[in-house]
Amino acid sequence: MRKNSIKNNRINREFQRELSELINNEIKDPRIAPMVSVVAVEVAPDLKTSKIYISVLGDLEAQENTLKGLKSAAPFLRSQLAHNLNMRNTPELTFIVDQSIEYGVNMSHLIDEVIEADELKAGGDSEEV
Q1: Which of 78, 84, 107, 122 is deepest in the core (most CB within 10 A)?
Q2: 38 φ, ψ to 5°?
């Protein structure tokens, strides 16, 4: 598989920027959580398909509802992208929930807990000496 070209990277960035704006400002679906971030976009080199990785702040139910809402809004989003980006082909949109931000937050909490436990242990050892 070949690497993304400069053109494809530029299209990915423009899609990400435009989709973020559309999701946060234009869609009024109550199923979509208020804190939705477009983490990454991968548009196929032939511009036929795209994968949109989203992050949703909330529980599993909020993520599922947001995914359903975005899938139902996909035709609207696609038409807006075609209009705003003025492209010959506008790819089909496939939304995927990305857990990387949530995973990073959980790892950060675990690291903080370990550091705190080490500090307590080090503080307890120095008092005994």
Answers
A1: 78
A2: -90, 105
**What are the extents of the domains in the chain?**
6-98, 100-129
Q: What is the pTM of this model?
A: 0.76
Average pLDDT, the chain: 88
Q: Order of strands across the sheet with 92-97? A: 36-43, 49-56, 92-97
Could you read off the pLDDT of 59-93 as tens digits, one per residue?
889 899 999 999 999 999 999 999 998 888 889 99
Q: How far apart are CA 28 and CA 35, in angstroms?
A: 13
At the topology level, CATH places domain 6-98 in: GMP Synthetase; Chain A, domain 3 (3.30.300)
